[in-house]
Specification:
Mean pLDDT: 78
Largest sheet: 7 strands, antiparallel
Shape: elongated
Strand content: 25-35%
Distance between the termini: 106 Å
Order of helices and strands: HHHEEEEEEEH
Number of strands: 7
């Protein structure tokens, strides 16, 4: 066996061993390496000071987000305005928005229990108080109409119109 042949055989064996070692070792998660490096590079007092500062900054960011988008925008005060048999209509008192020309826009939902299981449909409805009609601007259920409809044959929307228009104008 020549010296070159022995060297190539030794090199092949070494490569196989490195390959096996690579497969048997589990790499450390990157987060733990970063944490370990952070802890070694910063004294423990500085670590706790930085941790405290990051908590304060997070709290200030949360307060700022509340100031920009106040909690009142998320508030909902559901009020039942009408019930007819197994159907019920609710309006969100915090969402009543008077518009021009005697119109009022409000968020509402309708619950229908006639099929046995209650089925809820949410609406953004616009009521025309002067002409006594309504239209659903947005809805997320099987029932809804984007064109103007009279409230006369519908006792739930009649009651909702009377209630909302009374609050919207007052």
């Amino acid at each position: 066996m020549t010296q070159r042949h022995q060297y190539l055989k030794w090199l092949a064996r070494l490569r196989r061993q490195k390959h096996r070692l690579w497969l048997t070792r589990k790499p450390a998660p990157l987060a733990s390496v970063n944490r370990l490096l952070w802890r070694k590079s910063v004294s423990s007092l500085s670590f706790f000071v930085m941790l405290t500062l990051s908590g304060i900054i997070s709290s200030l960011a949360l307060c700022l987000s509340w100031a920009i988008y106040p909690a009142s925008a998320w508030a909902t005060t559901w009020y039942p305005v009408a019930q007819a048999g197994q159907q019920e209509q609710f309006v969100d008192l915090d969402s009543i928005e008077p518009l021009d020309q005697g119109h009022v826009r409000v968020r509402s939902y309708y619950v229908d229990r006639r099929s046995g299981t209650p089925q809820r449909t949410d609406y953004l409805t616009e009521y025309d108080c002067d002409r006594r009609r309504f239209r659903d601007v947005e809805y997320d259920g099987p029932v809804g109409s984007s064109s103007w409809m009279p409230v006369a044959p519908d006792p739930l929307n009649s009651a909702a119109l009377a209630y909302v228009c009374g609050l919207g104008r007052g």
